[in-house]
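Hey, weird one. I pasted the Cytosine deaminase sequence into the form twice and got a warning about non-standard characters only the second time. First submission, copied straight from the form history:
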Amino acid sequence: MKHFITKDTPVTDETLNVIAHLPTKSLSAIVENEFFVKLRDRDFMRIAVLLAQKSYDEDGCPIGGVIIDNNTRRIVGKGHNTLVQDNDPYNHGETSAIRDAGRQDFSNNTIFTTLSPCDVCATLIYMRQFDRVVVGDVTNASGNEQMLREKGVKVDILEDPVGIALYAKYRTEKPELDLEDWKGLAACR
Ligand SMILES: O=c1cc[nH]c(=O)[nH]1
């Protein structure tokens, strides 16, 4: 059957939002391979930001993650923080995307995260041997980029102004939730 999103489909926020909301397992039936090939890093970061927006709209923490295969550029995992939605003490944008991708060898994969990875996510990124991480916001938070480089993970900064503004708004609205999510309950005491 013909794909719904093809190589001729324009790369718009609306199309990227459909991809953000679709289950990863359904993407191969709906999105033609060639569409993914034409997406640039900034487009995958947009998908991650649209997932962050979805989480914000659900009253959660606005952090999203997307994992792609470096050769095919297909999405193999994606997700967003669900600390609030799932009442889960630890489910960050990155861990959500990694869980969605499953127990893979990530040495030929790139993870896009809308926020600079926290200590636990950064550790997981190098422990699972990711080739590269692209960080969408080092304005609101930063700190683990150098450690990741020292562990052999390529780190690129690709700031997305919409994602940065969204995170700054959330932090102003819910400073305690931001602290709990980023640093854990220990930081709130
Ligand atoms: O890296 C981080 C930090 C806070 N929250 C997330 O979801 N990810």
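That's the output from the first submission. The warning seems to come from a hidden character in my clipboard, not from the data itself. Residues 61, 63, 81, 92-94, 115, 117-118, 121, 181-182 surround uracil (CB under 6 Å).
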